[in-house]
Amino acid sequence: MHREPIPSGRVWTMPPLILHPFSDSTGPTKLVESSRASMMMQGLLPNNEFTLEQLDEKILDGRYCEIRMLFYVGRDLERWIEQ
User: Fold this and answer.
1) For the chain, what are the domain ranges?
2) Alpha carbons 79 and 82: distance in angstroms, whole number
């Protein structure tokens, strides 16, 4: 990756991303399950295996994961701005 130096000649290296919700394998899986559950509730996918309560729980798990992701993206941006 080519970095253009700023006028003072210094090159800034950004810290690595945090993105904790995706540091384990369950984060992306929860998001996919949440999307599938939402589509099942809307009748866009067949639902022969889950109750409405189970689908609601999967959707809420996915939303919680999305909120966590946004929180950590915000933390990453704060660290970058401080630099």
Assistant:
1) 24-82
2) 5
d(CA 70, CA 80): 15
pTM over 0.85: no
The DSSP symbol for 13 reads P
CB 55 within 8 A of CB 37: yes
Distance (Å, whole) CA 27 – CA 50? 21
Distance between CA atoms of residues 65 and 24, nearest Å: 12
Any idea how long the chain is?
83
Of 13, 17, 63, nearest in space to 38 by CA: 63
pLDDT in tens, 12-71: 676 776 666 566 667 788 889 999 999 999 999 999 899 999 999 999 999 998 888 888
Alpha carbon 49 to chain centroid distance?
26
